[in-house]
């Protein structure tokens, strides 16, 4: 049995998705932002969700790492290209790009006060974060030319990760209309029964 610490509207969305799509037994613990329980902080010292406790008692954090591990442990679910697949480099590239470039840019927008010691700097941090977010999404949009999914010819958990980030975009329609390929990918994923069900809790759209 897996135990996943999560929260509606958080990065726990993709972790919940990969576990459910892999057909794994999991207990989801909803962690409040205020006064998170001690057992959660022992797993995630920064107090960030998602955090996953594996059946053997090991714990891990980071939504991308959780997604890759579960997909690799359960190849029968088809949630990631095989290690020797030609699509594997793209899968790893985009998972790491999204987690190291897009995700942090969005965090700087929503939590701008954490990235400056001067209250007068919050607006500048937020503005720069929005520019960087849009630059990153434009890179992904360009990469989707001529393909339906981020990695190979099949949906992977990387696509679910992209959907989550696209619906976090803070301005206007999400994802933005000018990213037509991302919009199309997200529209197709929204019909997936697991994605549709999880959205009833996470409410991305």
How many distinct domains?
Answer: 2
Q: State the share of residues found in helices, binned by percent.
A: 40-55%
Structural class call reads alpha+beta
Give the overall pLDDT as a whole number. Answer: 96
Number of H/I helices:
8
Strand order of the largest sheet: 2-1-3-4
**How many angstroms does the end-to-end distance come to?**
30 Å
Name of the CATH architecture of the largest domain: Up-down Bundle
The CATH topology of the largest domain corresponds to Glutathione S-transferase Yfyf (Class Pi), Chain A, domain 2
Radius of gyration: 17 Å
Offer a few descriptive terms.
single chain; 205 residues; alpha+beta; Glutaredoxin; Glutathione S-transferase Yfyf (Class Pi), Chain A, domain 2; 8 helices; globular
Task: Describe what you observe in this structure.
The protein has eight helices and four strands, in the order E-H-E-H-E-E-H-H-H-H-H-H. The mean pLDDT is 96. The protein folds into two domains: 2-77, Glutaredoxin; 88-197, Glutathione S-transferase Yfyf (Class Pi), Chain A, domain 2, CATH 1.20.1050. The protein is globular and about 50 Å long. Strand 1 (2-6), helix 1 and strand 2 (26-30) form a beta-alpha-beta unit. It is of the alpha+beta class and 205 residues long. Strands 2-1-3-4 form a four-stranded mixed β-sheet, covered by helices on one side. The two termini are 30 Å apart.
């Amino acid at each position: 049995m897996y135990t996943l610490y999560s929260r509606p509207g958080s990065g726990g969305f993709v972790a919940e998705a990969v576990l459910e799509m892999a057909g794994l037994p999991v207990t989801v613990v909803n962690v409040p932002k205020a006064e998170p329980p001690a057992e959660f902080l022992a797993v995630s010292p920064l107090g960030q969700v998602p955090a996953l406790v594996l059946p053997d008692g090991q714990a891990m954090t980071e939504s991308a790492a959780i997604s890759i591990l579960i997909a690799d442990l359960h190849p029968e679910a088809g949630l990631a290209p095989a290690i020797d697949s030609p699509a594997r480099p793209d899968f790893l590239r985009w998972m790491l790009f999204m987690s190291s470039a897009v995700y942090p840019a969005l965090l700087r927008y929503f939590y701008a006060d954490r990235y400056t010691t001067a209250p007068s700097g919050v607006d500048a941090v937020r503005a720069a974060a929005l520019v960087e977010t849009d630059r990153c999404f434009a890179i992904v949009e360009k990469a989707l030319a001529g393909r339906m999914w981020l990695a190979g010819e099949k949906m992977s958990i990387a696509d679910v990760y992209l959907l989550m980030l696209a619906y976090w975009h803070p301005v206007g329609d999400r994802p933005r209309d000018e990213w037509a390929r991302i919009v199309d990918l997200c529209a197709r994923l929204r019909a997936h029964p697991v994605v549709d069900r999880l959205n009833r809790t996470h409410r991305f759209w």
